[in-house]
User: Which sequence fits this backbone?
């Protein structure tokens, strides 16, 4: 009988059609936690606010609050992004620059971020990657394929092309 009454009751659809709604204060608190967890770009924050379905006026108010309280800082984001991608993923400066541009970071902040990488560490990391990849390709008998794989590997990671081609030429 209980099952029958449940089936006969009309289903009432929620007003927000399955989307969670947030007040400005709730969204601000959520974004503060989001930015405190790790540095974020303005673009990431705007995308998060759009996903939360916040109106443009509320988005502007929240972003202003995040900047004023130092939760959102584009220079700090660019610097930590560059350090992290270089140290952890072993990306070159070209790839880091490209990815920062995808986050809508300006030239000044990109230049500031790239200064975080010392020239000595940069060159040492490149040499380390070349030797590691050369060892991985030691089974490859075709010299052309070996060079091509080394070049593709290093260029994909954003290393300077003249360094990459010099390293490939030294494989002979």
Assistant:
């Amino acid at each position: 009988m209980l099952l029958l009454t449940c089936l006969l009751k009309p289903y009432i659809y929620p007003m927000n059609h399955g989307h969670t709604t947030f007040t400005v204060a709730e969204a601000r608190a959520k974004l503060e936690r989001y930015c405190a967890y790790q540095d974020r770009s303005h673009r990431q924050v705007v995308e998060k606010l759009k996903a939360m379905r916040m109106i443009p006026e509320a988005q502007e108010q929240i972003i202003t609050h995040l900047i004023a309280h130092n939760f959102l800082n584009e220079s700090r984001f660019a610097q930590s992004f560059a350090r992290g991608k270089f140290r952890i993923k072993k990306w070159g400066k070209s790839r880091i620059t490209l990815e920062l541009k995808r986050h809508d970071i300006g030239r000044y902040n990109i230049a500031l971020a790239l200064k975080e990488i010392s020239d000595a560490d940069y060159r040492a990391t490149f040499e380390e990657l070349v030797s590691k990849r050369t060892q991985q390709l030691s089974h490859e008998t075709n010299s052309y394929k070996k060079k091509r794989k080394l070049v593709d590997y290093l260029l994909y990671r954003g290393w300077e092309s003249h360094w990459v081609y010099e390293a490939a030429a030294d494989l002979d």
Observations:
- DSSP finds ten helices and no strands in the chain.
- Residues 118-172 form one domain.
- Residues 82 and 88 are 10 Å apart (CA to CA).
- The radius of gyration is 25 Å.
